[in-house]
Amino acid sequence: MSLLRFCEKGRVEAGCDEAGRGCLAGPVVAAAVILPEQSELHELDDSKKLTEKARERLVPKIKKEALAWGIAEIGPEEIDRINILNASILAMHKALDGLTHRPDLLLIDGNRFKAYKQIEHRCMIKGDGRFRSIAAASILAKEHRDQLMRTLHETHPQYHWHKNKGYPTAAHRKAILRTGPCELHRQSFRLLPEQLSLPLEGPS
Description:
The chain has a domain at 13-153: Nucleotidyltransferase, domain 5. Helices cover 35% and strands 15% of the residues. The protein has helices spanning 52-65, 76-82, 84-97, 132-153, 161-164, 170-179; strands at 13-19, 28-34, 68-74, 105-109, 120-124. It is globular, with a radius of gyration of 18 Å.
């Protein structure tokens, strides 16, 4: 089923989504995208349903076709200070700050948001699988964050961020157990479950 081009015809709608909310390390990244109502990006879908190569192909197409787009990051220190929900919303606000066109309706993926500059907003559960603008935002946010984590892997190779992108995989947690967390880990998150709190036995 193809995604909806808009929520209300005739309005300037900005889709917003974030990536990295459930990660143990790295920033949370948000994007905002305003697409023309007659957008021809038929390949758009929830970023999690697309292959990495498909997302990479779509990024320049989205940026070229969009009337406006913005991307913003909130780092681990700020996430620890204000909590991940507030950090995700703040990242969305900063992404919206980057738009060169002012929307009059915000389509937010998920069920929580805080009002932005008195612009009407609507929270959409699984919106990235329903509306093109939110799907486009989800792709920009995820690809921006994935590339960032691949870059950070070069200075922190022990965590394998080029593969796990900071998510709580078994390999990531095992690396934290062996070498400890670094400054890019979110200290307010449970980095290790209780059953992994004891030292590893045997060769590494």
